[in-house]
Design a protein that fits this description.
The structure holds two protein chains of two kinds.
Chain A: E1 4-7, E2 10-14, E3 19-25, E4 30-38, E5 45-51, E6 56-59, E7 62-67, E8 72-77, E9 86-94, E10 99-102, E11 106-111
Parallel strand pairs in A: 2-11
Antiparallel strand pairs in A: 1-3, 3-8, 4-5, 4-9, 6-7, 7-8, 9-10, 9-11
Chain B: E1 5-7, E2 10-13, E3 19-24, E4 31-37, E5 44-50, E6 53-57, E7 64-68, E8 74-78, E9 87-94, E10 103-104, E11 108-112
Parallel strand pairs in B: 2-11
Antiparallel strand pairs in B: 1-3, 3-8, 4-5, 4-9, 5-6, 7-8, 9-10, 9-11
Classes of the chains: A mainly beta, B mainly beta.
Chain lengths: 112, 113
C-alpha cells in the first residue's frame, strides 16, 4: 500500500522567512496530493492540493510542487507569519488504495 | 460557508461501554470519511461511504461500525470501548467521490477511562 514520508518533523523559522516541507510517496499510481494545516484542538484544514497532471500550483503565499518521476512533493510558504504556526500534513491518494494516506506531520513554529 | 458538523465535541466513556459519534457533511456532499487521530499522530483512515454505501475500509476495528443515512449524515458506532480507543475522531466530507477535496470537521475527542 501507499506510504508517505514527511520531513522535517519540526521546523522553526523567523517571521518573514520561507518554510519548506517535503514529502515522498511510494505508490506510483497516486494522483492527488493535498496539504492540510491543523491548529491545536481543530480539524485539519485543506490549504492547497495538486493533481498528478500539474507540476506546480500557487495560492498567494503558498505553493506546492510535484515531481512524479521522483515521487516527491513539497509545500512552500513564503513571508511566514506567526499565524502560520501549526502542524502541517501532506497526504497522497491512490485510486487503487482508494484512500488518503497522511504523512506524519511537521510542526511549524514561526518566531516573531 | 457551511462546514462539516460533528457531535458531540467531547465524550467520556468507561471501558466496555459503547459510543456513537455523528457527522453531518457539508450540504450537497455525498461522501463521508472517518479518521482516528492519536496524540501527536497523523489521521488514520477508518472507513468511508459514498452515496450511502460503504466504499472503502481502513484500519477500523471489528468493534466499530458505521453507516451513512438517507440525508447523508453518518454515524460511527463504537462498542466494547478500550483505553486505546481514546483519540480524536474526525469526519470529512467531499463531493463526487474519493478523489475530490476532503473537508474535515472539528472532531470528537473521545476519552475512555
Amino acid at each position: 500500500g501507499e506510504n508517505v514520508e514527511q520531513h522535517p518533523s519540526t521546523l522553526s523559522v523567523q517571521e518573514g522567512d520561507s518554510a519548506v516541507i517535503k514529502c515522498t510517496y511510494s505508490d506510483s499510481a497516486s494522483n492527488y496530493f493535498p496539504w492540510y494545516k491543523q491548529e491545536l484542538g481543530k480539524g485539519p484544514q485543506l490549504i492547497i492540493d495538486i493533481r498528478s497532471n500539474v507540476g506546480e500550483k500557487k495560492d498567494q503565499r503558498i505553493a506546492v510542487t510535484l515531481n512524479k518521476t521522483a515521487k516527491h512533493f513539497s509545500l512552500h510558504i513564503t513571508e511566514t507569519q506567526p499565524e502560520d504556526s501549526a502542524v502541517y500534513f501532506c497526504a497522497a491518494y491512490s485510486e487503487y488504495g482508494n484512500k488518503l494516506v497522511f504523512g506524519a506531520g511537521t510542526i511549524l513554529r514561526v518566531k516573531s | 460557508a457551511a462546514g462539516v458538523i460533528q457531535s458531540p465535541r467531547h465524550l467520556i466513556k468507561e471501558k466496555r461501554e459503547t459510543a456513537t459519534l455523528k457527522c453531518y457533511p457539508i450540504p450537497r456532499h455525498d461522501t463521508v470519511y472517518w479518521y482516528q487521530q492519536g496524540p501527536g499522530q497523523d489521521p488514520q483512515f477508518l472507513i468511508s461511504f459514498y452515496e450511502k454505501m460503504q466504499s472503502d475500509k481502513g484500519s477500523i476495528p471489528d468493534r466499530f461500525s458505521a453507516q451513512q443515512f438517507s440525508d447523508y449524515h453518518s454515524e460511527l458506532n463504537m462498542s466494547s470501548l478500550e483505553l486505546g480507543d481514546s483519540a480524536l475522531y474526525f469526519c470529512a466530507s467531499s463531493s463526487g467521490g474519493l478523489i475530490n477535496e476532503q473537508f474535515f470537521g472539528p472532531g470528537t475527542r473521545l476519552t475512555v477511562l
